[in-house]
């Protein structure tokens, strides 16, 4: 896996992270109201966890050698000045992420 997932449903990317291992914080900048989607793909053995701050959206994904993916979406009622996605994963897990509006 090397590329970030393509946005779904004609979404506009806020952030796209290509192949990474372990944890990272992904800045999203200002998050307006409406739809916010987070798409993650991973490969390797272990569990990846993601938290979208300060929105409170949190999810985990059990990664496998054959690859795994998930898409999570929230509809925001208020704008947020600075958003970020905190990803934690074992160093044996490679992942990529796209955040979209």
Please give a structural write-up.
- With 101 residues, the protein is mainly β.
- The protein contains no helices and 8 strands.
- The strands form 2 sheets. The chain has a 4-stranded antiparallel beta sheet, with no helix packed on it.
- The relative contact order is 0.41.
- The mean pLDDT is 93.
Short overview:
The protein is built from no helices and eight strands. The protein has 101 residues and is mostly beta strands. The model has no long low-confidence stretch (mean pLDDT 93).
What are the SSEs and their pairings?
Elements: E1 13-21, E2 24-31, E3 34-43, E4 46-53, E5 57-63, E6 68-76, E7 80-88, E8 94-100
The low-confidence runs, each spanning 5 or more residues with pLDDT under 50, are none
What proportion strand?
A: over 45%
Q: Any idea what the shape is?
A: globular
- Distance between the ends: 23 Å
Give the number of helices.
Answer: 0
Average pLDDT works out at 93
Name the helix and strand elements from N-terminus to C-terminus, one letter apiece. Answer: EEEEEEEE
The helix content, as a percent range, equals under 10%
């Amino acid at each position: 896996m090397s590329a970030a997932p393509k946005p779904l449903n004609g979404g506009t990317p806020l952030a796209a992270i290509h192949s990474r291992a372990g944890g990272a914080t992904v800045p999203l900048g200002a998050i307006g109201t409406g739809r916010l989607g987070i798409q993650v793909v991973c490969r390797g053995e272990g569990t990846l966890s993601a938290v979208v701050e300060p929105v409170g959206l949190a999810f985990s994904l059990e990664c496998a050698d054959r690859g795994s993916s998930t898409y999570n979406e929230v509809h925001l009622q208020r704008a947020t000045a600075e958003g970020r996605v905190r990803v934690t994963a074992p160093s044996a897990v490679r992942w990529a992420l796209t955040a979209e509006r």
